[in-house]
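Fold this complex.
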Amino acid sequence: MAEVPTAAISRLVTYLRILEQLEGQDISRTSSTDLAERAGVSAFQVRKDLAYFGRFGTRGMGYTVPILKRELMRVLGLNQTWNVVIVGVGRLGQAIANYPGASDYQFQYVGLFDVSPELVGRQVRDLTVRHIDELRDFVRGNKVDMGFLAVPPERAQDAAQALVDAGVRGILNFAPVVIGPRPPEGRATDQRSVDGNFQQENGDEWRGVIVENVDFLAGMKRLAFYTLNPHLKDSPVPEDPA
Amino acid sequence: MAEVPTAAISRLVTYLRILEQLEGQDISRTSSTDLAERAGVSAFQVRKDLAYFGRFGTRGMGYTVPILKRELMRVLGLNQTWNVVIVGVGRLGQAIANYPGASDYQFQYVGLFDVSPELVGRQVRDLTVRHIDELRDFVRGNKVDMGFLAVPPERAQDAAQALVDAGVRGILNFAPVVIGPRPPEGRATDQRSVDGNFQQENGDEWRGVIVENVDFLAGMKRLAFYTLNPHLKDSPVPEDPA
DNA sequence: CTATGTGAATGGGTTCACAGCT
DNA sequence: AGCTGTGAACCCATTCACATAG
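Structure:
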């Protein structure tokens, strides 16, 4: 089903960033070996990842930085405008709204939403924070493509559902919880779909909605684990051989 | 080399979070099927992931929430104290410092560092921001285990190197760049280690240092890609069969 | 001779079926 | 009978070797 490995997409993002850096240094040509070094992967991997989407190089020569950059941007969907709302405008939501770099890729923050009376009405960046009750109409009226979710974990599922009901196609979830179609009511364990994924007839609004998670508490915990068990991590610095 | 899949560790973190939610709801027993539903994975996967680290359930019965929670905390290294410094105390760094939930796991922020004269000396949370020049002595004097890196991308490599030189064992990198042992000086492409990962003789300080990345710009870009190509994503809502 | 692009082989992770306890 | 724990099967991602193009 995934004819392109998920990990390959993450790597493409990295290659693109490297190409931007190269362009900034007025380096106009590169190679799979060079990209591989800078990205911390193998050159095979670079070539294979690119090959999923086309042929962007010249044999014997390598890649032309601006061309490969343009092609990767196209592949990743970064040559078009994305209208984004942020739901949750606490410290994290504001840090996201103000983080530089998003607008470089035509991610435009068009609306900010929260429930807190202290925040609603306030100005953040060039936007006025709205109450989350206005979300649905706003998304429909403003061609919002995706929502960034920066609410406390206990509100994340409801806020995500609101985004989906409103019609966004993608959610970037910063809350440390799994969001998704709400399981049918009932006890924890019952007999439907034995030993596999659950699925249900409600929750169809979620069909086609993409969720990406950015969970830094999880990152902390993974870091703790690998710091205790370094041998379980494929490190950038290879082991001593024999 | 990775006898435990990296993805399994991420899932263990999710299971742990679910167990905490269950405990908060005074639910004392669960099962692989129940955990699987809540985590959005298969029950096979849950059992296999747990099996990498031991036998925590009772056949025919399932798992006892507090026991499994305790065991997962132990496995993940969350039953001990971690002393953490944050390098970069801009909006993002402050949001991290103030984000609730870290201290639940004995992650203790013991030092904050920045270069900006506007920030150094200021009070954030209960800590005074120090100049990054003090990092080395501080890390050595205060048994710092890991560093969270929230500086602008162009400073990330140097700040990471400073953390490593100072002796931290883990880095949680929020900057949208690859950090690691600095490649040897020289042109982009040369002949060492043909077609594979680079490695070098300097950069040995990085040996054993764990780097985890939390890159939300990358998350945005992945989201853009999958929103354009939903069929390439294994969705929580399964496809219509046939 | 160089470096890409790609079918084939390898290896690691997920899925499965069932053995083993309760 | 029920649900965990696990060796084996399967499948997908990475690695490789080489054919191809410049």
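Residues 6-24 of chain B form the longest helix (19 residues).
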